[in-house]
């Protein structure tokens, strides 16, 4: 294979200088997809879907890195950030959030996260943020944050419902009040206003 300057660097456990990572997100499908991608890059991956589960996992099997979803049922990712840093001040943590939560993500960086990323983020996005180290781009003055678009809100809602249904497209379509084929067409689309991800899963893989 011929490498060119236009090909983005591929990050892995060796280049990041860490061999373990904790992923915390209440959306099962997205969490498992990301876990698989990180395992392929050489990481020992732990996963959790809530504050309580993450604390228990981290107590029994601490990791070098952690990626936290800001918004989860129960206690937030910001609460979890503070708890994990209390348990291990050397942990390197990144916060994930939707566009509407960017101001809170900045609070997370100021509370000790090394960076934040807008969801959805693939494995390379996350590892690139870890590779940049403690140099997040955090605005310090008056900042205007765009509200999430209707398309973005719909995308996130669909994936949350699909996760709640354990990946069952028929049940998710019933809960959403749309035809199954309509839901499949929506699932083929990448997240609005985000670059295409190499980790996209086709519909037949979700079933």
TrEMBL record:
One of the GO BP terms on file: phosphorelay signal transduction system
GO molecular function terms listed in the Swiss-Prot or TrEMBL record: sequence-specific DNA binding
Pfam short name (any one): HTH_8
InterPro entries: Bact_response_regulator (IPR050595), CheY-like_superfamily (IPR011006), Homeodomain-like_sf (IPR009057), HTH_Fis (IPR002197), Sig_transdc_resp-reg_receiver (IPR001789)
Matches recorded under PROSITE patterns: RESPONSE_REGULATORY
Tree of life domain: Bacteria
Domain Response regulatory residue range list: 20-134
UniProt-listed SUPFAM superfamilies: CheY-like (SSF52172), Homeodomain-like (SSF46689)
Keywords: Phosphoprotein
Residue numbers spanned by region Disordered: 184-207
Modified residues (4-aspartylphosphate): 69
Signal peptide range: none
PANTHER family the UniProt entry points to: RESPONSE REGULATORY DOMAIN-CONTAINING PROTEIN, STRESS RESPONSE REGULATOR PROTEIN 1
Name of the protein in its database record: Photosynthetic apparatus regulatory protein RegA
Lineage: Bacteria, Pseudomonadati, Planctomycetota, Planctomycetia, Pirellulales
Protein encoded by which gene: regA
């Amino acid at each position: 294979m011929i490498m060119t300057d236009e090909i983005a660097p591929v990050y892995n456990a060796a280049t990041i200088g860490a061999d373990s990572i904790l992923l915390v997100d209440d959306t099962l499908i997205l969490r498992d997809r990301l876990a698989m991608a990180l395992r392929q890059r050489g990481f020992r991956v732990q996963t959790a879907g809530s504050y309580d589960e993450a604390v228990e996992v981290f107590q029994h099997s601490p990791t070098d890195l952690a990626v936290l979803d800001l918004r989860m049922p129960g206690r937030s990712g910001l609460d979890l950030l503070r708890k994990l840093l209390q348990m291990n001040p050397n942990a390197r943590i990144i916060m994930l959030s939707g566009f509407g939560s960017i101001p809170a993500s900045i609070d997370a960086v100021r509370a000790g996260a090394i960076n934040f990323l807008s969801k959805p983020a693939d494995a390379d996005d996350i590892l690139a943020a870890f590779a940049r180290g403690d140099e997040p781009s955090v605005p310090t003055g008056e900042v205007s944050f765009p509200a999430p678009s209707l398309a973005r809100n719909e995308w996130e809602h669909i994936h949350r419902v699909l996760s709640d249904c354990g990946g069952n497209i028929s049940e998710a379509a019933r809960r959403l009040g749309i035809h199954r084929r309509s839901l499949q067409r929506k699932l083929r689309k990448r997240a609005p206003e985000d670059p295409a991800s190499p980790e996209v899963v086709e519909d037949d893989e979700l079933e």
